[in-house]
Amino acid sequence: MKRSRIPLIVAVICFVFLYLPIIVLVINSFNGSRFGSVWGGFSLKWYARLFSDREVWFSLRNTLIIAVSATALSVVLGTLAAFALHRYKTRLQVLHYTLIYTPLVVPDILMGMSLLLLFVSVAMPLGLFTILLAHVTFCISYVAMVVLARLQDFDWSLMMAASDLGAGPWTSFRRVLLPLIMPGIVSGGLLAFTLSLDDFVITFFVAGPGSATLPIQIYSMIRHGSPPMINALSTLLLVFTFTMVWTSQRLMRRTT
Fold first, then answer.
1. What count of Cα atoms within 13 Å lies in the side-chain half-sphere of residue 21?
2. Is residue 217 within 8 Å of 56, Cβ to Cβ?
3. Helices marked H in 88-127
4. Are 123 and 54 in contact (CB under 8 A)?
5. What is the pLDDT of residue 132?
6. Residue 228 has pLDDT above 80, yes or no
7. Do 79 and 146 meet the contact criterion of CB atoms below 8 Å apart?
8. Is pLDDT of 2 > 70?
9. What are the residue boundaries of the structural domains of the chain, listed by start?
10. Is the domain covering 45-255 a CATH 1.10.3720.10 domain?
11. Helix (H) or strand (E) holding 212
């Protein structure tokens, strides 16, 4: 029986639809012409202008500060929340699970408006701190869900075996539990870092003067008409993202 080529054709169409715009963007970042429809020769001038733009680097610094801080806080709080959801089965946990799951389904624009109203009502000045609080609010949920899935597959008899062999609670946690759930913690941390890095809608609502992040800066550059520099910046972000994913994969292979 001859195999149908329809699945292959559909897969090729999907890959072209997903990756062709990215390839065009990378090519245009080296285009000497300002217009993407006209090839003006290979050039690095857009990268040179990008590296000399202080506003881009200032927004990049803000983005990295917020992303790293939000990831660190989210990993700690999200992991603790996952432990509480998995180990304790009470009626209060229904409310706890609802609070953790809600940010995953609430639209970003609604969450951004709600957080803005909260910060204004308590007279908190908008800035990097309010952006950090907003990012931690939705990143915790993603970390908790990923770690919780890892905990549900964990064999708790290993902890009992470690206790029978004389290991204390802290030793059992550090030598048995933590290494086995570390892939889930790392995955949740990478997910939180990525979400914080490219969040625009929520950040747009809670950002104040002098606290623009990279997505907001890119939006401002689009409004002022500088697409070639945006192509160069997007290419660098792609290289950074692929490098981070490749590094995480290498680290995960070493730990398994």
1. 4
2. yes
3. 92-105, 108-121
4. no
5. 93
6. no
7. no
8. no
9. 45-255
10. yes
11. none
